């Protein structure tokens, strides 16, 4: 039972990242009809927003500490972060320690701006082009962004730790008498993903802006005839989708140290998630994300790998093939989407 529950938690943890990226992909496809293969790069940029904030907060100034000397008795030079000089050692160290959560405040405007620039500068020219053209141009954009990150940050992963208070483990099974130890930050990430997903659905369901967007997704021409600038609202949704992917990347940095190819690592899997859930279906993308995350977690167990070597690498694709054979539109796909 302990092992079973542990794999469920592992699956929900990994599925949270899949669901968040797939949610953004589906938002863009559902509103603009664009298959955005650069969405994984937005996840990567979000992760490097956290890296940038950490590097900025740890910028230091060299000072001479007369209380510390070398073996010859000469005063030593010590590096003190600027934030410690500005706010004092206690508050300064706390700010540095919580750099990842604080990076959310930095990432939101950055990701929205990146989304706007991407949509207005490039993707809007491909709305009426075939999906194959959209895939090629956005995949090329993803490679460009990946190489830009590699140029400025290097090719090696950059460790970005979670706050010390959230860097331990929690005994989740103590209440029911089970020995179930799990990292606190992974629990935080799952809760964060649920909060973001709930926020996006609530925004689309209960706000006037969201209702107009949903109406535009169903019948764009009719909404336009009512005098509503639906294109502007769709551009804003592109920015929101970029922010969702970016925030997923920010909070994932303590789990997987950011590197320049992490966007590609998640993109293909997340696109499979979108297809399995059903193109254009937001609930389907979220459901498929968590479902495939759990299946991948169980396929990574030792008995599964011994039974079928390499099953953990292909399980998502096998499940996708089976589901699409049974339900060609995916779990919750809509009729007519990408069927022309």
TrEMBL record:
Pfam family, one: BPD_transp_2
An annotated GO cellular component: plasma membrane
GO molecular function: transmembrane transporter activity
Places the protein is found: Cell membrane
Keywords for the protein's UniProt record, in alphabetical order: Amino-acid transport, Cell membrane, Membrane, Transmembrane, Transmembrane helix, Transport
Bilayer topology term: Multi-pass membrane protein
Transmembrane segments: 15-35, 42-61, 102-123, 189-213, 233-254, 266-291, 303-326
Main location: membrane
GO biological process: amino acid transport
The keyword Cell membrane belongs to this UniProt entry's keyword annotation: yes
Family to which the UniProt record says this protein belongs: Belongs to the binding-protein-dependent transport system permease family. LivHM subfamily.
Name recorded for this polypeptide: High-affinity branched-chain amino acid transport system permease protein LivH
Gene this protein is translated from: livH_6
